[in-house]
Design goal:
The chain is α+β, with helices and mostly antiparallel strands and 80 residues long. The chain has helices at residues 4-11, 26-34, 50-61; strands spanning 16-20, 41-45. It contains 3 helices and 2 strands. The protein has a two-stranded parallel ribbon. The chain starts with a helix and ends in a 19-residue tail after the last helix.
């Protein structure tokens, strides 16, 4: 989506919005993140890969950082 009004309308009834970094314009992501009337939690995945999207969903659900960082402990990742 390239128009902010269409994006806001599509997200209006969503609980979570996951942005794929390489597929979204910066201006659109800023509108979604800074919208004063948002009813959704938002996070950004660096790629459309399954793990990146699952990590973004986790951050959105628990209202953590929009972007991933080393400080976030994902319970579904097992460190050996």
């Amino acid at each position: 989506m390239k128009q902010a009004s269409n994006v806001l309308r599509a997200c209006k009834e969503s609980n979570y919005v996951i942005l794929i970094q390489s597929y979204i314009k910066h201006s659109i992501s800023q509108i979604l993140i800074n919208s004063p009337h948002k009813s959704y939690s938002i996070a950004m995945a660096t790629t459309a890969g399954q793990l990146a999207v699952e990590k973004a969903l986790y951050r959105a659900r628990y209202k953590l950082n929009v972007t991933d960082n080393d400080q976030i402990q994902y319970p579904f990742l097992v460190n050996n």
